[in-house]
Amino acid sequence: KKQTFHDYYVMNPRKFISITNGITHRRWLAVSNPGLTALLTETIGDGFLKDYTQFEKLMDYVNQEAFLEKFAAVKRQNKKRLAEYVYQTQGIVINEDSLFDVQAKRLHEYKRQLMKCLHILCLYDEIKAHPDKNFQPVTIFFAAKASPGYIRAKNIIRLINAVADLVNNDVDTKDFLTVVFIENYGVSSAECLIPAADISEQLSTAGLEASGTSNMKFMMNGAVTIGTMDGANVEISQRVGAENIFIFGADEAEIERMKAYQTYLPGELYEKNQAVRRAVGHLIDGILPVASPHQFSDLYQSLLFGKFGTPDPYFVLYDLPDYIRIFEKALAKYTEKPLDWYQTAAINTAKSGYFSSDRTILEYNDQIWHLTPVE
Question: Is the pTM here over 0.85, yes or no?
């Protein structure tokens, strides 16, 4: 309405209707997560399988400790299942008691897997600087594919694997920090990965995500979202409440202001923040185990200098410090207040019914098709 089709919108405003997309909870909960489906059925009956509004019944139980303990037990079982899958398919041993932090989506610069890589390097530096400190173990999963000709996206996949080689094999970090890139990501592996997630990473630059569906799948399976105010994260936040989601970073209006007035100066941010400067420097300082010392020079240049004199259009270094802050907040809640954490996770599941594709299709029919429903 505002940019791409503004002229057409002015002439034909009735042609523009916004209907939030959805996912089928029969596939992404009932099939993918039989343990949680059984718990929901035991708690509120099985009516939610056909009537998405019945997810709301779960809100009557999210304050009950006995229910939350069962909810946590289901999550632990799903984490065990994923750990076994990763060991069988990739030979990687995972600590099932670690926090499972998952970023699963198409590999694209605007989805900012690169920012998560820099965050991991910040964690690596923190652990190396305090070798005697007892950190909460975290396992970070990436799952993505890149378009065939998208060279930079493929290089980010190489970076993820290089970071994994670094942290997984360092004697100081391997007990606290594990990085896994799920190979050949598809629906079958997603059905194993999504139910096991504690944290759902939704890091897109504000204003660039149309909606997203992985965020819906994760919340339905009891993962807590860390994300920008972008796409369906906005609606998830409205449904679960600000206290049950971890929002960080610039919003769309702030991004647009920085673009309009050219106030984003990544070089200054790089110089002012020591942790960020070290992490970005690791792209070129030789610490990463890669064949060529210049493997990630392009990524380094893109973060600091952009292209043709235009700063990085995805504002990675602008949002990174706030992301580090919000991740620490989420990790503290998971570590120090586990019952509160699982209450937040259960609220996410209870409020996920709205994101069923059943609701999407009903809205299409009400607003566009006007068909007569059949039994």
Answer: yes
